[in-house]
Design brief:
434 Repressor (Amino-terminal Domain); 66% helix; mainly alpha
Length: 349
């Protein structure tokens, strides 16, 4: 395993963002498969000192030791010099990111190895929601985004377009975390940045997804009419993949249900399930829709049924899908609670 490979692990990156050296050493060893003795050779620090740091008996404060550990652990460049987790005024996108939204215009080739590595790491972050909270990874993802956007002005053509997509994926992720923290204005600002990058890069699936997320925010804040319009805009583009279209159509179904248009909502939901069934393999879906397999589509259909107050259909859908979520404790708990709610409502009918 190369020195950088352990840094694909979200728990290690979250520990780095906190500058929690006890956790950094433990998580690095776990990811690299090393004992404390094995780590001696990597960082040039004797095992008793490693043990003292991991146990909290020794604090890492000196600049020399921090530099030594940073080099020994091969901390990726995009994580060095990151800012701490956000304070009250640090949730929104900074002005310099907006300045980088322009297409690159230089000639020559951009080395995309850094971007490819960061893209892989972001994929790991998406899958870590059951283990690591978004807030804990905020600083790491912001730092990754800075590294990606710095490459944009020096790129052109397909390379620039690929970087735009990766930047948009990061901005969307940051929006989602900001929204979950109750920072609605910042969440929308990140979506604006993401939409600009997605459109400039010609990425229709990501453009559609950003509309879908904005629709979700509107619905959460009690504006189903706006949610409906935004979701419809998300599925209006040409060349959408079936998975992206499925996500947009389901969101429109939820907005229709909130408007009391139940028959239309169920028809849209059926369409979303059919679209998801066309791409059962994860490799055929955009990276941010890795989760939208036929089982999740059926569970979303059950959620639409619940929104339409069709409790029997909702309960049946949740029962059918829950056994498939055994390896996803957070999702299982969520849909289990939805099933319990549907069954309670049925018992009162």
């Amino acid at each position: 395993m190369s020195g950088r490979e352990p840094w694909a692990q979200p728990r290690l990156r979250a520990a780095w963002a906190r500058q929690d050296w006890a956790a950094i050493l433990r998580e690095y060893r776990h990811a690299a498969g090393l004992s404390q003795r094995g780590l001696e050779e990597v960082i040039g620090l004797a095992q008793p000192h490693i043990c003292a740091i991991e146990s909290g008996r020794r604090r890492v404060t000196s600049a020399d030791l921090i530099s030594r550990l940073t080099e020994g652990l091969a901390v990726p460049p995009e994580l060095r010099g990151l800012t701490p987790n956000p304070g009250p005024d640090d949730w929104g996108p900074p002005p310099e990111l907006r300045e980088r939204i322009a297409h690159g215009h230089t000639t020559g080739r951009t080395d995309l190895r850094t971007a490819e590595w960061i893209g892989r790491v972001l994929a790991e972050h998406r899958r870590a929601e059951d283990e690591v909270g978004g807030r804990d990874l905020w600083a790491a993802v912001r730092s990754q985004l800075n590294a990606v956007t710095r490459l944009i002005p020096g790129s052109s053509g397909d390379a620039a377009d690929r970087l735009m997509l990766l930047a948009a994926e990061h901005a969307h992720w940051l929006s989602w975390v900001a929204h979950s923290e109750g920072r609605t204005g910042s969440a929308l600002a990140w979506l604006d940045v993401a939409l600009g990058w997605a459109m400039d890069g010609g990425h229709q699936d990501m453009t559609s997804w950003i509309h879908r997320v904005r629709s979700y925010y509107a619905l959460q804040h009690g504006d189903p009419r706006r949610a409906e319009r935004t979701a419809a805009a998300g599925r209006a583009g040409r060349g959408l993949s079936p998975a992206a279209a499925s996500a947009a159509v389901h969101q429109e179904a939820m907005a229709a249900a909130a408007l009391g248009e139940r028959d239309r909502a169920r028809r849209l939901s059926d369409e979303a399930v059919r679209l998801a069934a066309r791409v059962p393999d994860e490799a055929d879906r955009p990276g941010w829709l890795y989760w939208l397999d036929p089982v999740r589509a059926q569970l979303e259909d059950a959620t639409t049924a619940a929104a339409c107050q069709h409790w029997q259909d909702a309960a049946a859908g949740y029962r059918a899908g829950l056994p498939q979520l055994a390896g996803y404790p957070r999702d299982y708990a969520y849909y289990r609670s939805r099933l319990d709610d549907a069954e309670r409502r049925l018992s009162r009918a």
